[in-house]
Amino acid sequence: MGVVGRGELTDTAWMRIEALLPPVRGRGRRWRDHRQVIDAILWKLRTGAPWRDLPERYGPWKTAHERLRRWTADGTWDRILDEVVVKDDAVGNVEWVFSIDSTSVRAHQHAAGARKKGALGAGGSKRSQSKVKASGARGAG
């Protein structure tokens, strides 16, 4: 194939997974090359960029997205991952990278609905001013 870009399938990796892919359909338009589509999917997963930002060398983003969706639904993508990860991990060739998303941030329980500064009654009580006035009026008489 020539020079392989960073993160793209090598010839050895391609030979291992090529047989796991569904045959290219005979009816309708010709499917885009599976290898190019897998390279597109790998680019998307590696970068985390939106599908629409897929570089032109990988073909239309909709093709890669739709192929990943189909392969995920029919189990093809799981078979590919099982083949690659299980065999490479057995010989220590897998670099496990975890990306933790921190968009779920919890606030302290007192962060919501806290009283504003100066909202306490004159005597430092948590009672409302109307209750303080009412109780004062009853005791005066």
List the main descriptive attributes of the protein structure presented here.
about 140 residues; mainly alpha; about 45% helix; elongated
Task: Describe this protein's structure.
The chain has 141 residues and is mainly α. It has a domain at 11-90. The chain is 43% helix and 0% strand. The chain is built from 5 helices and no strands. α2 crosses α3 (61-74). The longest helix has 15 residues, at 76-90. The N and C termini lie far apart (100 Å). The model has no long low-confidence stretch (mean pLDDT 74).
Describe the secondary-structure layout.
Blueprint: H1 11-17, H2 34-47, H3 61-74, H4 76-90, H5 129-139
Helix pairs in contact: 2-3
Identify the quaternary structure here: single chain
Which value, in Å, is the CA radius of gyration?
30 Å
Number of helices: 5
Output the structural class.
mainly alpha
Largest sheet: none
User: What proportion of the residues form beta strands (DSSP E)?
Assistant: under 5%
Task: Report, as a whole number of angstroms, the end-to-end distance.
Answer: 100 Å
Order of helices and strands: HHHHH
The low-confidence parts are none
Helicity level, as a percent range? 40-55%
- The 3D shape can be described as elongated
- Give the tally of β-strands: 0
Average pLDDT across residues? 74
